[in-house]
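Worked Example 4.2. Consider the chain below.
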Amino acid sequence: MTGELKLADKVEITTILDNMVDVLLPSTDTVKRYVLQRDFFLSDTLVAEHGFSALVTVESGDRRESFLFDAGLSWGGLTHNMDVLGIKAHELHAIVLSHGHADHSNGLMGLAKRLGSRRLPMLLHPDAGMQRKVCFPDGREIVLPPPDRQSLGQEGIDFVEDRKASYVLGGLALVTGQIERTTTFEKGLPFHFAFDGGQWQSDPSVHDDQAVVMNLKDKGLVILTGCGHAGVVNTIRHARKISGVDRVCAVIGGFHLSGPAFDPIIPDTLNELKALNPVLIAPGHCTGWKAIHTIAREMPEAFVQNSVGTKFVL
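Applying the procedure from the previous section yields the following structure tokens:
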């Protein structure tokens, strides 16, 4: 990584895909909700799915540029919601992939079909191409196929792999790269396996997990996570370390605290988040009902319920 994270005058994060859509949530000065159309019941509406995708737009001076962070699960969900929200593929300068799981990458094929002759760079960790699966204690298995490199390459996606931190938008946004694990309680994703060296091996760390970070003038870091498999606290610590900025303005995205395996670490996570005291915290996707409600109860001034179509204006 060379250079430094530049100051942004404004950051906008629009949730294109998430696990929930609620078109009746109220807007505020910093949280703009999707506005119902007069012909709501006749026109295309936003859809939700078990996946995540966001449009990140950063302003600095007279520059205003955007990139896509993750692409959701279904081939059509991403492009459908982009159309409803009026987001154009030609407005994107890059794609950042948080990790290789299908609920964050499968929608890339639908987007790639719209690129035409244009080539679009996609920043990702090298491990994002590994075959993965989750094996539950009851015997169930969920296969998590990686992005189809060959097909995406043919459709206009250029893979830019790096384990280390890197920049997009000329230094206005920082991609964390592989996140350092420093907490004692965030131990990754149990029951997760990767096909490596000709066999399936335990892979709780999900090393390709990465986030994006912006440095908002006079307010601090805006941190956007996909699933947060490294742990949301590890992610924030790493973002502060590599950016050289301690103040945290906002944390948005998936914190992966859903289910019995993660229930025990919710109190420790909450204590760390409260100590950081962000102005805005919007957990979504894989954070889980129990963790989201705990954060909402304990951090009411900062908490925002995320929803498909929500735009955070910071």
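The chain has a mean pLDDT of 94. The chain has seven helices and 19 strands. Compare this with Example 4.1 before moving on.
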